[in-house]
Amino acid sequence: KNEVEQSPQNLTAQEGEFITINCSYSVGISALHWLQQHPGGGIVSLFMLSSGKKKHGRLIATINIQEKHSSLHITASHPRDSAVYICAVSYPQGAQKLVFGQGTRLTINP
Amino acid sequence: SAVISQKPSRDICQRGTSLTIQCQVDSQVTMMFWYRQQPGQSLTLIATANQGSEATYESGFVIDKFPISRPNLTFSTLTVSNMSPEDSSIYLCSAIRHSYNEQFFGPGTRLTVL
User: Fold this and answer.
1) Is B102's pLDDT higher than 90?
2) To 5 degrees, how large is the angle CA A88–CA A84–CA A66?
3) pLDDT at position B30
4) For residues B107 and B9, what is the distance between their CA atoms, to the nearest angstrom?
5) Residue B102: which of A48, A97, A101 has the nearest Cβ?
């Protein structure tokens, strides 16, 4: 079992839909990261969370430390949001090394 | 944010050869990492590149296969040695600036070994 589990693995939606991607982890963490990977392979860091909620434009990330669960939401989705979204965690004793989920492939159709 | 560049962006190499990937950050950073992403897989940490000393490798990765250098606070190289088709992957470097704690990623190097 992976230490970091994402769901769904694949998600296809229509433009304008509200999108939710989930991430669960098994042990206590120091921080959780949401990353975006486009087809070329480059990765962009979207959020780093240790508690609560963060918002940037149409993207919202939440984390529930007690339930060991985080969600990434996209409001008013657009085809340019199509990418792989990756959840990653770092541990207090992990020297900031990241452990990654398997990613969620999001496709937004016009 | 820090800007990270990698060279080359992609390469196609023959079995048995070696390739060195360069990672350049536009500002001094405390930590640099090298990751591998095999086709259809998630990212896996290869090693932490330590400035002025030997890299710290994760389980399953060894220095003879993936020698790493980090001569200063803005630059690192990863060499993939004696390549085989199983080494075909995207290789990414990342960096952390101590005061920010956020991890920044390079654009990746897409390697194909024939």
Assistant:
1) no
2) 35
3) 86
4) 8
5) A48
- Strands of the sheet containing B75-80, edge to edge, are B4-7, B19-25, B75-80, B68-72
In this complex, do B108 and A40 lie within 8 Å of one another by their Cβ atoms?
A: yes
| Omega prior to A8 cis, within 30 of 0 | yes
B36 has a pLDDT exceeding 90: yes
Q: Does B31 contact chain A (CB < 8 Å)?
A: yes
Q: Residue A99: what residue type?
A: V
Inter-chain residue contact A45 with B102, CB threshold 8 Å: yes
Residues 6 or more apart from A55 whose CB is under 8 A from it? A61
pLDDT for res B89: 95
Q: What is the mean pLDDT of residues B19-26?
A: 96
Report the 10 Å Cβ neighbour count for B92.
Answer: 26
Q: How confident is the model at residue A38 (pLDDT cuts 50, 70, 90)?
A: confident
Please state, as a whole number, how many other Cβ atoms lie within 10 Å of the Cβ of residue B12. Answer: 11
pLDDT of residue A41: 73
Per-residue pLDDT, B50 = 87
Nearest CB to A96; choose among B31, B41, B106: B31
Residue among A23, A96, A99, A105 with most chain B CBs within 10 A, to mutate: A96
So what's the pLDDT on residue A30?
86
Distance, in Å, from the CA atom of B110 to the CA atom of A12, rounded to the nearest integer, reads 26
Contact across the interface for B45 and A97, Cβ inside 8 Å = yes
